Hints:
Number of helices: 3
Radius of gyration: 31 Å
Strand order of the largest sheet: 5-6-8-10-12-14-15-17-19
Structural class: alpha/beta
Order of helices and strands: EEEEHEEEEEEEEEEEEEEEEHEEEHEE
Low-confidence stretches: 44-54, 248-277, 291-301
Mean pLDDT: 76
Largest sheet: 9 strands, mixed
Amino acid sequence: MALKAALCPSCGASIEIPSDTDKCFCAYCGNQIMTQAAIAYAKVQVDGVVQTRDADFVIRGGVLEKYNGSERVVHIPDGVVSIRGNAFAGLAVEEVSLPSSLIEINEGAFRGCNMLKKIVVPNSVTRILDDAFRGCCLLKEIVLPDSVTHIGSRAFSSCSCLEEIVIPDSVTYIGNEAFSSCSRLKEIVLPDSVTHIGSGAFSFCACLEKIIILGSPYIGSRAFAKCRSLKRIEMKNVPGERIAGWREFRKFLNNPLKEYSSQPAIRIGKVHPFANCSFEKAEVLEEVAVYIELTSGHDLGEFIQNYYTQYYAQVENKRIEEKNKRIEKENKEQAERQAKYYRRQGLCQYCGGEFRGLLVKKCSRCGKRKDY
């Protein structure tokens, strides 16, 4: 295990850490740190990069802690490897140029910058953490490089002017509500590198019409909920059990088998609104294409027939169960109405027979005592 010199971004202590791990802990303050970021901090020190370039920037150990300037167009100095949380939060910057030395953008770094219109992320950045660009309502364009692997929760939430976002093949994790309320997004293509789509990741994207999922990620609850313009979903090799609410999704299907081609795919026709699912309230959804890989020797037609035979059996069993419950309820209500009528007539409430006896009255028909 190779050890490399590094600096802890939290306490500034000189440490040695294994270079073949993504994360580690500082032996002095105990905080978790990103390995490559800590190594880069040490390199900044060795190369003699100054700690503070000018009065506008507060930079320590390669970490940009705060921007105190008033410029609308900001160029962050070279040597900065991390932007600390809330460093630009709420400021009236319009454009930011990030250095090629940058590795991560921390929590809330640009949160609430409602004048920010453009930002280019360099190829060195690997992680964009929670709330990094949340509420940047004028942000129209952002380019994510192939180096980014992690997009944190609410990272681009409420970027209401964002019209297009290209998720690079390097991304593996998309956090909860990462792109929620991006109301101008129209199409999303998620590469096969993505393994996790968090809850509500693309929820409330009012103009989103098409989703293409190339891999087999876990899709969290309400990941695409309230996308009221959603018309088409393409999922390649996404097992049903990896989609939150899949049973509820199938329950509301209408005319499930619309068409299928010679490729291993199932195309599902028009879908009614449904709840408690990754695609809740997709009210104009017209088609869902679920692509399924079949092992050799299996016939597609036979697979589809077996799949929908099982599906319709579940639907029929549910229908019969609901019918029986309805009949049971109606019979109970009718019996209660009849007993109420018999009591008003002074008869036995169970069978309608007359009572006999002076001290203890019993029904002449069923023999039960009068209990009212």
